[in-house]
Amino acid sequence: MTAIPQPRKQPRQARSRHAVAAILEAAARILAGDGYASFNTNRVAELSGVGIGSLYQYFPNKQALLAALHRRHGEETLAALDDALARSAGRPPREQLAAMVAAALDLHRRELGLHRVLEREWPIYDEPPASNPIDAALHARIAAWLADAGGDPARAGLLLRMADSLVHGLLLDADPQAEGLDEAITDALAGYLALPAYHHT
């Protein structure tokens, strides 16, 4: 199994966290706009405004940047899911599911170029679920939601894998703005969970 590159150290102070955030944003912009062939640490340092020496304090190479972008995406996915659940609290389960699907699609649509590189060219730097704390947190959120909705929490893992495959497959390999994409994914997942249909108004 491929070893996941790790950062050299974690930023502790606000200034260091700001520098790391700027480095990752610059890396994401280069990958999204120009692809992996144009991706290197010197370009990232220049675009981020962070010295190359400072960049190397945190990331030993560009592979470590790729791994960090995978982790950042996981954190953003968890935050989007939490927001969707908070905004749809009290609604029927199918509407809550639709809110989560919409949030996931919106997140991916904002950085399609980046996700094509991460998911299609360098998926090996995504930490496997067995050791990934973000995956564990996502699983816990979905299991709790299923329990609250009267479903089976044991289905959380498969539901997440299905959602991941549908979102990445339909967005990255097809037209990301295709009409009815949100509804198609929601219907597929709701079918697995046997959630009752609702009428759009």
UniProtKB/TrEMBL annotation:
UniProt keyword annotation of Iron-sulfur present: no
InterPro entries from the UniProt entry: Homeodomain-like_sf (IPR009057), HTH-type_TetR-like_transc_reg (IPR050109), HTH_TetR (IPR001647), TetR_C_15 (IPR041669)
Keyword 4Fe-4S: no
Organism: Chromobacterium indicum
Domain HTH tetR-type: 17-77
Domain of life: Bacteria
Pfam families: TetR_C_15, TetR_N
Annotation: DNA-binding region: 40-59
Keywords assigned: DNA-binding
Transmembrane segments: none
Lineage start: Bacteria, Pseudomonadati, Pseudomonadota, Betaproteobacteria, Neisseriales
Name by which UniProt lists this protein: TetR/AcrR family transcriptional regulator
Entry-linked PROSITE patterns: HTH_TETR_2 (PS50977)
